[in-house]
Amino acid sequence: MIIREDSGQGSAEMILLMGVILVIVIIAGTYIFNISESINNSLKSLLEKGRNSVLNKL
User: Fold this and answer.
1) How many CA atoms lie within 13 A of 17 on its CB side?
2) Segments in 1-58 forming alpha helices (H)
3) Which of 1, 28, 46, 58 sits at a 20 to 30 Å CA gap from 18?
4) How does pLDDT run across 35-45, given as a tens digit for each residue?
């Protein structure tokens, strides 16, 4: 049996829950993006050093 709710408490809780989930996803996405960007910068620096080393040996 479905309980009829006239106060809107369930809707308010669902909206709050969806908002919290959205905030968690945004924070996690930003954190992952920053980690991948730092890895990318480190790899780029390593490749540039290797390339310059090989070119200097020629």
Assistant:
1) 6
2) 9-57
3) 1
4) 999 999 999 99
Q: Which residue type, as a one-letter code, is found at position 13? A: E
Q: Evaluate if residue 58 carries a pLDDT over 90.
A: no
CA–chain centroid gap for 23, Å, is 11
Whole-number pLDDT of residue 18? 97
DSSP state of 7: S
SS3 call for 4: coil
Distances (CA, A) of 51 to 2, 3, 5, 11: 69, 69, 68, 59
Tokens, residue 42: 């480190």
pLDDT band at 1 (very low <50, low <70, confident <90, very high): low
Residue position matching structure tokens 């009829």 = 4
